Each structure stands twice: as structure tokens, then as C-alpha cells.
Amino acid sequence: MTTTLAGKVALVTGGSRGLGAAIAKRLAHDGAAVALTYTSSPQKADEVVRDIEAAGGKALAIRADSADVEAVKQAVAETVHTFGRLDILVNNAGVLAIAPIDQFSIEEFDRLVAVNIKGVFVATQEAVRHMGEGGRIIMIGSVNSDVAPFAGVSIYALTKGAIASFTRGLARDLGPRGITVNNIQPGPIDTDMNPAEGDFAEGMKKTIAIGRYGQGNEVAGMVSYLASPEAAFVTGASLKIDGGLTA
Ligand SMILES: NC(=O)c1ccc[n+]([C@@H]2O[C@H](COP(=O)([O-])OP(=O)(O)OC[C@H]3O[C@@H](n4cnc5c(N)ncnc54)[C@H](OP(=O)(O)O)[C@@H]3O)[C@@H](O)[C@H]2O)c1
Q1: CATH number of the domain encompassing residue 75
Q2: 123 found inside a domain
């Protein structure tokens, strides 16, 4: 454990698995008390909480579907009620669907927009009501907002592009309050959403300069920096962590 974020409170959406779990553990390692949301994996969320507590940290798992406005508002309220404040919001929860545009259903479109865009808006709006000077909003966008290396990714790219634009606008709104807003754009990271094994992954690896998938803890390191006091002059930025996929 370090003390960079001692006394701070973080909320990580979608913290039960993948990137969100790595981010929650890293922020707790840095000294923050961490709340994390999940929808379908209570046991995995509890495991993350237990790991953090076993390492001497404070954590809380909250069931909150990012597509459910009231649940997201409640998650922010529960975080503040339990830990007394909110300093860092990591908008990580996200869903992916890949299909050619003529086969993309309206229901899938609505689900991606609800989780990847509307959920981010609601969490951010609620969170900033509690944040003071030094607050941090960190988005987990995607390189797909800038590049589409394969077909079928158009709607996912649309949602992640919206997050990059939202980040810039928010940075202007919140800069005068000393709150920074940044967007991390990962390339392929080994998670349930995008496993590093299989035919798709083998093709992908050939396009990555480093020649492998990234790991959740590598993205968590970038979150840790952006959440820290050292990053106070970084805002409105979209930062890639993609092993050179877009180099
Ligand atoms: N992996 C990659 O290559 C990659 C690349 C670029 C960007 N990203 C972005 O990184 C973020 C995390 O992706 P990941 O790869 O870690 O995904 P993942 O392995 O599928 O994990 C998703 C996490 O988000 C939670 N979640 C999903 N839908 C939710 C909802 N409606 N409400 C609340 N929580 C929800 C899941 O909770 P449950 O366990 O309860 O289902 C889980 O904790 C996403 O925004 C994704 O778009 C990923």
C-alpha cells in the first residue's frame, strides 16, 4: 500500500471483473477507499472487496446497472454515505457488441448507448455534485473512437467517440472547480470482453507494435497517475494505451 490517495474516496463502475477490478485494486493500493459497481457478478465483486480488505484497504461492492438511472444515482449516494466523500470517479462499465450495420438491432444500439453513454453522464453528473478541488473524473474510452481496425465496430466506436467529446466539454465545465476530466483509450486488453487467446486475438496481435495484448494492471497504472495530485494539470485529454496499435 502507498499513500498517494490517502483520505480519498473512489467509485469505479463495473469493478467486478476485467479492467474495473484491476483499477479498483490499484486505487485501493494507492490508499483510496473504493466503491465498485457490478450487475451480474456479485461473487466476483465480493472477491475484489475481499482482496482489497486483505491488503489493508477499504472497499464496498454495490449492485448498480449503469443503464438504470436510479441505480447509478443510488450508487453515488451509497458511496458518499459509506465513506463520507467522493473524490475520484472512474467511468469504466461498458459493453461491446459487434455486427455489421445492417444487422445491428435497435435493442442492441439502445443497450450500448444506455450503458456506455447515458450511464457515464448520470454517474458523472451525480458525482460532481459531491466533488471539490482536486476531484478526478476518469473515463475508460477506447482506441475505437479514433480507429476501427475491423468491421462491425461502428456502434461501439460511436459510443466511445461520444466519451472523448464529453471529456473535452466536461474539462471546460469543471476546470474552474479544480476537477480534472480525462479519457483513457485502451487498445486490446486481456479480459472477458476481449480474451488474448483465439483466432480473433491472434489476428489482432499482428497489428500491435508490442505484439501482445495489454493487461488490466497496465491500464490501472495510467488511472493511478491521472487520479494522483501529480496529474493536476492534465485535463480534457484522451490518452492511448494500446501497445502501438495506432502507431
Ligand atoms: N478489454 C479491452 O480490450 C478494452 C479495450 C478498450 C476499452 N475497453 C473498455 O474498458 C471497459 C472495461 O472493459 P473490460 O474489458 O474490463 O470488460 P469486461 O471484462 O466485460 O468487464 C466488464 C465489467 O463491467 C461491468 N458491467 C458490464 N455491464 C454493466 C452494467 N450495465 N452496469 C454496471 N456494470 C456493468 C461488469 O460487471 P458484471 O461482472 O456484474 O457483469 C464487469 O465488471 C469498458 O468500458 C470497455 O469498453 C476494453
Answers
A1: 3.40.50.720
A2: yes
